[in-house]
Amino acid sequence: MRQITRDIVNAFQEMRSLRIDNSRTDGQGIWLFDNKIVEVREDGVWITNAGWKSKTTKERLNGLSGVHIQQVRGNWFLNGREWDGRWVNVDAWNGGAESVPEESVQEPEFDLTSQWMTAGYSKPVYAVFHSLTVASLEPVEAMLNGEGIPTRRTESDTDGVYRPNYFLVVRPEDVDKTARILSEMYLLA
Question: In order of start, what are the domains of the chain with their CATH numbers?
Fold first, then answer.
């Protein structure tokens, strides 16, 4: 995340005004190129892409707590569900659950050094999907997030291997469910 995004989002969360380059906040909303993309309403925080599927718009929105936007083949996914970019209440979109403070979110556990592969790279313990390109992780990541399974991307350590290896990692308690979903997906393909 770029520093401008951190600064704008921090000012927004602290309910103070700040303007940096193409972004600004008054503590109640965030604007990018004079397009309002975030606003606080009585029922929570609302977001939109204002009709712009740009990397900058996605980055500013991803700076917010409870927002994870990714793009797969031109389509945007908000927290694992396809989203057309129209105004949406983030809390309602996430099932009405209250935001969890960042410091209490438990990261998926994985060990990059515990499974050294004969092919010359390490494999995270709780890796459920492997690829040689980041782009091929995106559809699987979106599908798993849509099923309510949090994922994390990671790149392996290598030992003279030409290309890096990319993995999707899940929480230990989600490994079995993920394995069932992925095996069903590949049986249907």
Answer: 3-99 (no CATH), 108-188 (3.30.70)
